[in-house]
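Hi R.,

Here are the chain sequences for the assembly we discussed:
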Amino acid sequence: MRLKTFKFGIHPHDMKELSHDCKFEEMPTGEKVYIPLAQHLGTPAQAVVEVGDYVKVGTKIGEASSYVSCNVHSSVSGTVEGFVLRENAMGKRIRHVCIANDGKYEEDFLPPLENPTPAELVERCKECGLAGMGGATFPTHVKLETKTPIKALIINGSECEPYITTDYRLMIDKPQEVLQGIRYLAKAIGAPEIWIGIEANKSDAIEGMARVAEGDATIKVFGLKTKYPQGGEKQLIYALAHQKVPQGGLPSDLGYIVLNISTALAMYEACALGKPLFSRYMTVSGKGINRPANIWVRFGVPFVEIVDYLGYSDDVVKVISGGPMMGISLHSFMPVVTKGSSALLLLNEDEIRDVDPTTCINCARCASVCPMGLMPMMTDAYVLKNMIKEIKPYNPLACIECGCCAYVCPAKRPLVQSQRLAKKLIRERKL
Amino acid sequence: MSENKRFIVSSSPHVGSSLFTRRIMIHVCIALTFCLIAGVVLYGFYSLFLVLLAVFSAVGAEALYCVIAKKPLTIWDASAIVTGMIVGLNLPPTAPFYVPIVGSVFAIMLVKMLFGGLGKNFANPAATARVFLLLAWTTKMTAFINPLDYAGGKVTAGDFFSFRFIVDFADKANYVTGATPLATIKSDALAGATTTNVDLLDLLLGTTGGSIGEVCAVVILFAALYLIILKIIDWKIPVVYLASCAIFTLIFYKNGWNYILPNLLSGGILFGAVFMLTDYSSSPNTRWGAVIFAAGAGLITMLIRRYGGMNEGVSFAILLMNLLVPLIDKACRPKAFGYKKPPKAKKEKEVKA
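And here is the predicted structure of the full complex:
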């Protein structure tokens, strides 16, 4: 099979061997969960419960406050104890709903859908609070309600970030459910074709998905070259369709919608089981964790309970929510599991590169790996000199912050940080 | 308690490649060492002395500059060693001791440090130093000798460890070769000969007159392979440069086919292609820029070799193209993925108004 791919990019060690054989296990839930009202991109949800209310698993506790927003549901049954300000993974203090878990896990699900229409599917997706579960947490119903005619639904099974094995395990353990979810999604947007892209380092997942999709002419499973950032939306579309998403445009402008495996499974659970999105599968890995695992966990469980459950060593120097290339480093274990928590990584000294940046040697490695065709060294130099106008031709707004440039930089310059700063300053000054 | 533990918080990405600036420089030093060994075997121990002198003066000059300018000491990134080695390897094996010192100090102080140090120099320090030395001591910089004649069995320890050139080139008459391959090519081309009388095997093995590091083509090719496989340098610049030199040989010379290999294997073309054109800070940062840069250097090299007053033109070509790099980079700035030209509606309006 010819592997498809995009141009440039990097080959980091994928480190998936730590957890790729670990079957999903259920993470026990503690006495209290803290469910943030802002778990997604867009406006935070509006709380619809009050202190003292009794909620069940799946009871709506927050309602979407605008179009680009998501419903939030309780992950346990019990009493609402109050609203607390806690730090989320970004370090921002936001409102969390604190629910005392009574341990009964009484369910308050929606009725399963039988032979749903596209409108019903989108409505269900909205009702269940689905958000992109690869990490960006963009509300899924917004993607599904596209106006442009869709040529194909692209399912992102590339999972190109090192360490993370969640989508891989889902494709191995629950291929039927994932496929059913993908079919629901395709029906919702009226996509005539479904393309599933999976990186070649997950060859058994490629085979597994191809096997369950056999006989369905609308579904095509593609092998992708193992290369980072293969799972970037624009890179994936380029690899499969050989089309470039215009800068500032959306994949739907070209007639494609990209959703990932976890989202497809959430869609299946929402439609076939009536389960709102209150839990997710995630990878807990890194050499700092005693027992790397793939876990099923309810939202609102603080990371500290997860690391205490799996055990961790003292030499942990960096804790990351998400993958090592684009994830957010945490200063404590206090943040909780949310819709976007694809992984929790505890890394030790050997795994990270924590050295002071030295002067740029102009080797152009950053430009040679940038999948967006940018020149990060120029942005970095101009940002340092506060010459923001001069950065404009180097187009930092096109940066997808994948981190390839900073990964290869021999001077270990914080190039992604410079790009972010340049973006912010350009937007602020309206240049 | 887990809450009291302190973790590093930083911007993504959190992992990185293991290639650091110093490691790159050390790999280049290793590749240069291959050439140095070849030079020492060919021309004797004095060559090693010259190169070491160049390295020590380069590192010393950088340290001195840092102290004078009250800057943090930057010699630990090993880039001064690379510059020093290239300056040393560019010298003829007969250079007096002060030549490498002056060359290295010039390269480091004037070309590298005054313009901001590592990564900021506008031109290749070693190429600039070579041009400077060539203009300052033209005869000393072009006094090439035949290599030690191992086959003849006349090489004694005294010959090998001889320091007779240290102060000046005293007994010139006994050591100067009839003509270096470059001079032969030049005179043949000027005479309009359809072929040149240069032994290709001599050029490959380096058993001929030339600069310490430049003569042994086999070793330079091996060093190039080493650097390209380890991804220290990009293959594009050397390959395009050599291709460009070959093409312009074909155009400029009568019966150019016969001149391609003698030209490519002699003089500094190979050494320059691998070690000097690929200098990070003075080569373009854009993909197509690198191609234009290397092709242009090839054109200038061959123009000088064929029509210029000198036998050799590599360092001049490198220097001239170095100066064009900012312009080349600006012209070749890549378009971002998915970039579309903004509509030119405004301009049309202006025209109508």
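The CA atoms of residues 284 and 290 of chain B lie 5 Å apart. The radius of gyration of chain B is 23 Å.

Let me know if anything looks off.

Best,
T.
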